[in-house]
C-alpha cells in the first residue's frame, strides 16, 4: 500500500524527537506535546478562528497556542485559510486521522480518569459550552425553551460565571451569561457545580443528586422532561456518549 501522498515529512526544530524510527514515537513527537490533544479536540468540532480556539482552552497562554498551531501546521496536521482578519484553522486529512484517538482518550478518561477531578477543574464556562456542543440538533424542541443555570460552589476564579442562560430553539442553541431581554425562563437548574459536572458527565446519577438536594431542575414539567432528554441527563451513572464532530454534522 503506497501512502506517499499522506506521509508527513515536516521536521519542526522545536519538536523534540525520541531518536527512534518506531511509528509510536513518531506519532508522539507530534501528538504528545502539552496542549496539542486539546487543540485537536477543539478542531474536531470544525474549523475555528484563533479566538475560538483560545476560548476552548482559556488557561493556555496565547503565545503558546500560536507556537503549537505553527508546529501543527508545519507538521501537516493543521491547515489554515486566510480571512479578512486572521486565519481559519482546520484539521488536514492527517489531522482528521487523530479523531479516533480523541474519542478513545475521552472514553478512557471517563472510565479511569474521573477520580482525578479537582477544584481547578471546576470551570462553569467549560461546562456550559461543552453542554451546548453536545446537543444533537435532531433533539431540539419544537418551540423555544429558556433554561437558567444557577451554580453553587463556584471557585473564586470563576465567581462571575455563576449564572448562565441557554436558549434552545428549533434550529439553534444560544448561550448567554447575561439574562436575555424579554425572555421568560421555562426551566431552572440549581446545582452544586462539581456535582452537576459529575451528573452531566454520567459519573453520578441525577436521581441520587436530587435526593441529596444538591441538584434540582424546576419549571414547566413538559419542558423539564424535554431538557432531560436533550441534555441526556441520566438518573443512574453511565458512560456518557460524547460526540467529537461539527455541530452541523449531527443534523
Give an overview in words.
The protein is of the alpha+beta class. The chain has helices at residues 23-31, 36-44, 50-56, 62-74, 93-96, 99-112, 124-133, 193-201, 206-211, 221-231; strands at 48-49, 78-82, 87-91, 145-152, 163-169, 172-176, 187-192, 215-219. The protein folds into two domains: 23-112, Orthogonal Bundle (Arc Repressor Mutant, subunit A); 116-231, 2-Layer Sandwich (Nonspecific Lipid-transfer Protein, Chain A). It is built from ten helices and eight strands. It has a five-stranded mixed β-sheet with strand order 6-5-4-7-8. A three-stranded antiparallel β-sheet has the order 1-3-2. Strand 5 (163-169) and strand 6 form a beta hairpin. The longest helix has 14 residues, at 99-112. The model has no long low-confidence stretch (mean pLDDT 91).
Structural class designation: alpha+beta
Number of domains: 2
CATH class of the largest domain: Alpha Beta
Helical run tally: 10
Known CATH architecture of the largest domain = 2-Layer Sandwich
Summarize the structure.
Helices cover 37% and strands 17% of the residues.
Secondary-structure map:
Elements: H1 23-31, H2 36-44, E1 48-49, H3 50-56, H4 62-74, E2 78-82, E3 87-91, H5 93-96, H6 99-112, H7 124-133, E4 145-152, E5 163-169, E6 172-176, E7 187-192, H8 193-201, H9 206-211, E8 215-219, H10 221-231
Parallel strand pairs: 4-7
Antiparallel strand pairs: 1-3, 2-3, 4-5, 5-6, 7-8
Amino acid at each position: 500500500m503506497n501512502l506517499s501522498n499522506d506521509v508527513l515529512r515536516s521536521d519542526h526544530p522545536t519538536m523534540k524527537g525520541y531518536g527512534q524510527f518506531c511509528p509510536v514515537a513518531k506519532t508522539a513527537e507530534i501528538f504528545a506535546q502539552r496542549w496539542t490533544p486539546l487543540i485537536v479536540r477543539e478542531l474536531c468540532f470544525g474549523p475555528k478562528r484563533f479566538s475560538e480556539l483560545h476560548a476552548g482552552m482559556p488557561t493556555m497562554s496565547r503565545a503558546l497556542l500560536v507556537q503549537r498551531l505553527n508546529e501543527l501546521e508545519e507538521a501537516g496536521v493543521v491547515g489554515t485559510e486566510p480571512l479578512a482578519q486572521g486565519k481559519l484553522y482546520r484539521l488536514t486529512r492527517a489531522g482528521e486521522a487523530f479523531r479516533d484517538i480523541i474519542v478513545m482518550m475521552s472514553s478512557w478518561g471517563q472510565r479511569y480518569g474521573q477520580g482525578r477531578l479537582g477544584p481547578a477543574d471546576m470551570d462553569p464556562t467549560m461546562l456550559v459550552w461543552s453542554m451546548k456542543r453536545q446537543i444533537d440538533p435532531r433533539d431540539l424542541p419544537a418551540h423555544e425553551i429558556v433554561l437558567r443555570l444557577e451554580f453553587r460552589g463556584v471557585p473564586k476564579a470563576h465567581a462571575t460565571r455563576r449564572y448562565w442562560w441557554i436558549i434552545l430553539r428549533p434550529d439553534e442553541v444560544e448561550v448567554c451569561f447575561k439574562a436575555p431581554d424579554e425572555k421568560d425562563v421555562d426551566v431552572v437548574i440549581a446545582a452544586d457545580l462539581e456535582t452537576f459536572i459529575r451528573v452531566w458527565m454520567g459519573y453520578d446519577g441525577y436521581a441520587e443528586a436530587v435526593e441529596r438536594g444538591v441538584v434540582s431542575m424546576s419549571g414547566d414539567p413538559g419542558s423539564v422532561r424535554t431538557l432531560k432528554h436533550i441534555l441526556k441527563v441520566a438518573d443512574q451513572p453511565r458512560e456518557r456518549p460524547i460526540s467529537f464532530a461539527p455541530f452541523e454534522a449531527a443534523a
